[in-house]
Amino acid sequence: MGFLTALLIILIAAIIAFVVWFVVYRFGGKCPICALEKITKPTKITMDVENEEPYSAETSPTPPMGWSSWNTFRQNISEDLILDTAAAMKKTGLLDAGYRYINLDDCWQSSMRDENGRLQGDLEKFPSGIKSLIYNINQMGMKVGLYSSNGTLTCEDLPASLGREQYDAYTLAKWGVEYFKYDYCHHIPISRYAPLVYSISISQFDSHPMEYSVHNAVLSGLARFMTDTKLPSGSYVSGLDANQGRITYNNIEVDEDGKYVLTVNIKKKGAYEKYLIAKVNDGEEYELLFPPQKHYNLTARFQVIVNLTAGKNKIELFNPVTSKADSEMYQYRRMGKALKDATARVAKERKQKEKPIVFSICEWGWGKPYNWGAKAGNLWRTTPDIRPWWIWIKLIYEHTVKLYPYASKGHYNDPDMLEVGNGKLTYNQNVSHFSLWCMMNAPLILGNDLRSMNEQVRSIVANKNMIAINQDSLAKQAKRVKKGIVDVLAKPLADGSVAVCFFNKASHGARAKFDLNTLVDDKYVAMTKQNEYHAKEQWSGENLTTNGTLTVLLEKCQSKVYIIK
User: What pLDDT was estimated at residue 39?
Assistant: First the structure.
């Protein structure tokens, strides 16, 4: 067999394989051309969140402190257990120490919504209802948090909130919920594909719609006109996938300010989900989700209510999703907006002061939420779920400590709940775990059984010195200023002092030596230069004076934390 013959056989085999793949893919309801584009065209994260308003920092000006049901009890929670835990938080002095939130994680809810489609508590385990539970805990001086998932179901396969954000947020606000954890199980990402638009129309509810063909718009990027004489406009616009093109209408004119119906008219193509953002006057964004379509008809229409102002308005249509991170940002931001809208609505209805909800984003760090989390909520998980295993706690620390530039007042990296008092952690490991979370400005959410907590564990989590570091009003996460067998972390404080933590990562004792003067030149820490520094260790109360060099002896897995003045 000659070379050319062999090459020809290989070429024919490749063509046959491609045709088979194309047919199978197409008849499977997917878009083969889109798949090829995804392979051949590199994508990039296109989120532009620099100019967006962050989620309210005043909702949580310092890291939230409280307790969660998940680490110890999992699905085995009930009304009595939660009330007993709240009573224990008060009795043990944790409430006085700053712990406020009693958070019900997964399994608080029934497997069915009520007759009005609202979330409801498990009908056996919470017979008095969630609203009553919240009221009773509020009367004890504490706040209550609930849980759902950014998916079709929660992690325990119970009703979740994807696609029902506004409805569920309103339910939470009416109950008086003050903390909301939003998980990631059964998640469905937003499609990076866009529909084929041929026109839009604008109308009020009692007026004749004004239709605008795509020929009335300006196209940008890869957006392009395609001819189809069967359409009313004679053409449609393609090329809006993955933020590659936009349709911009600059001439949408209305007589008065108000709410209007925006109808997007599309040509049906491809049995796969599609997505568009309608951005109005360079401000508000409205989402349009297009489900997989059957082709009984050539066209379809989708509507959303938008706010327009008297005179000319600008409407842009585009799909910003190029990556998993883009999708997550938009979906978590959707819930964040729903929570803020809901609390404002309830306050207006009741003529009361608004009761804001702390929003905890829990997508396990997969979509690098530190890049966008502050625009969507107050805190964001940096890793998968914690376990009471020392090696796992150290891995979580190693990942989270690097993220200090992304944290700020009201917006925190969340390395997950505390495991202090759980598993087989030693005293030094428990102290180090708590110290590191305090230094990293992490939320302090306890995960142990408060009802049976021993005095040693209580003394760790109630250490007023460490809590003060965590709750410092400057709200800056510690920076690792030296890495080694012993890590050194430095956290600037509001009064001008600096908290310095020595963390021995080794399973043996260690001696650490550190020059405090290096913190003077560090722009993040910015410690004031002194001829003499006074250092007080926050666990033992030991006082030291030094001209700069601090030498520390540490047992295995031990941490020591000094306030430097």
Answer: 39
